[in-house]
Amino acid sequence: MKNLEVTYLGLTLNNPIIVSSSPFTSNIESLLRCEEAGAGAVVLKSIFEEQVIGETEFMSRYEDYPEAGDYLKHHLSDSYLNNHLNLISEAKKRLSIPVIASINCSTDKEWISYAKSNEEAGADALELNIVIMPTSTETKASDIEQQYLNIVSQITSQVNIPISVKLICKFTNILNIVNELQKRNAKGVVMFNKIIESDIDINKRELVATPSMSSSSELCNSLRTVSLCSAEVDNIDIAVSTGVHTGEDAIKALLAGAKCVQVCSTISANGFEAINNIKEFISDWMVDNTHTSIDQFCGTLSCKGAENNEIIQRVQYIKNFQQ
Ligand SMILES: Cc1cc2nc3c(=O)[nH]c(=O)nc-3n(C[C@H](O)[C@H](O)[C@H](O)COP(=O)(O)O)c2cc1C
Fold first, then answer.
1. 126 in helix, strand or coil?
2. pTM for this one?
3. Closest residue (by CA) to atom 8 of ligand 1?
4. Fewer CB within 10 Å of terminal CB in the chain, N or C?
5. pLDDT tens, residue by residue, 167-222
């Protein structure tokens, strides 16, 4: 196989396929399978502050036995946190590929304390899984954007491991956000998190969640942004997540300027061997195209070239429907 080495967040990965934060990275057995199947790195399943709060609230129902409730409250939230931190330590001991931890918090205080504890447990880098969903007419877009930036500033000023931010695609000007994140010392962004969308069941007349697994067609949602962002914002690495199912998908992401890709749904559909299949496809494609390293073609379709701009900037159908 060709040399597939890349650097991401300052870490050396022996290939650009990362298993994204998911059930496949939630326990040591799966993590070992990711490594055996040839992953270049893993992002551990996120720890969710919401879940700690949820368990704590559940325990507050022990109104008749307040001491028991308090005891269980601490015990459960501590054990959820400790399990997560133990997984980081164990993964660092047993895997030789980089281990990236992931956190999702809802309060400023916990963003900092979780970030610090994940660093202390030995994570090589930290992915911030930030999703702030607008639900009020009073909240301005700039207020939400500032929240993202504040979280990142606070964390990068207090931890030393590289920080990446897993973004959702719903920003008015994502290029500005990525540039501002870079100024606050974020080393990478993940484009994009797949949030669970809502659908409507017209018979039951209720909102229902859409399937959580992606398809390859969802990749196009990020290629334009990756292409623009990799040309416009220096000193920040891009990982593509959502819709990378095949070697061809991975090559598209790399050509657009991503340093690496993250995969989850393809493992669910095709098993852990999907990782090696993607690697082999990239390697064969490099041979066919006489590339000896990923650097030789990574970003060659970023939006710097004038010939790419016309396609990138064409977002409407005017020409297609002219008679
Ligand atoms: C069951 C499931 C659990 C997930 N859990 C997390 C999580 O804890 N943290 C996170 O950042 N992303 C999580 N994700 C999102 C994935 O990391 C990934 O971004 C998403 O599935 C899109 O990538 P894909 O097209 O390769 O599936 C989860 C996805 C699935 C399907």
1. strand
2. 0.91
3. 46
4. C
5. 999 899 999 999 999 999 999 999 999 988 889 999 999 999 888 899 999 999 89
Please determine, for residue 26, whether its predicted confidence score (pLDDT) is greater than 80: yes
What pLDDT was estimated at residue 198?
A: 87
Q: Smallest Cα–Cα separation from 310: which of 318, 259, 251?
A: 318
Q: For residue 137, how many other CB atoms are within 10 A of its CB? A: 5
Q: Which domains does the chain have, with CATH numbers?
A: 6-321 (3.20.20.70)
End-to-end C-alpha distance for the chain, whole angstroms? 50
Ligand 1 pocket by Cβ (under 6 Å): 20-23, 45-46, 102, 129, 166, 193-194, 212-214, 241-244, 263-265
CA of 166 from ligand 1 middle (Å) equals 11
Q: How far apart are CA 184 and CA 125, in angstroms?
A: 16
- Which of 130, 264, 268, 272 is the pocket-test mutation for ligand 1 (most atoms within 8 Å of CB)? 264
In terms of Cα–Cα distance, which of 298, 270, 265 is closest to 19? 265
Cα of 212 vs centre of ligand 1, distance in Å, is: 8
**Do 218 and 240 form a contact (C-beta atoms < 8 A)?**
no
Q: Which of 17, 20, 118 to mutate to test the pocket of ligand 1 (most atoms within 8 A of CB)?
A: 20
User: Tokens at residue 263, please?
Assistant: 């995969």
Q: Is the peptide bond before 192 cis (omega within 30 degrees of 0)?
A: yes
Judge contact between 28 and 87, C-beta under 8 A: yes
Residue partners of 255: CB distance under 8 A and separation at least 6: 297, 298, 299, 300, 301
Q: Which residue has the higher pLDDT, 317 or 150?
A: 150
What is the C-alpha separation between 202 and 190, in angstroms, rounded? 35
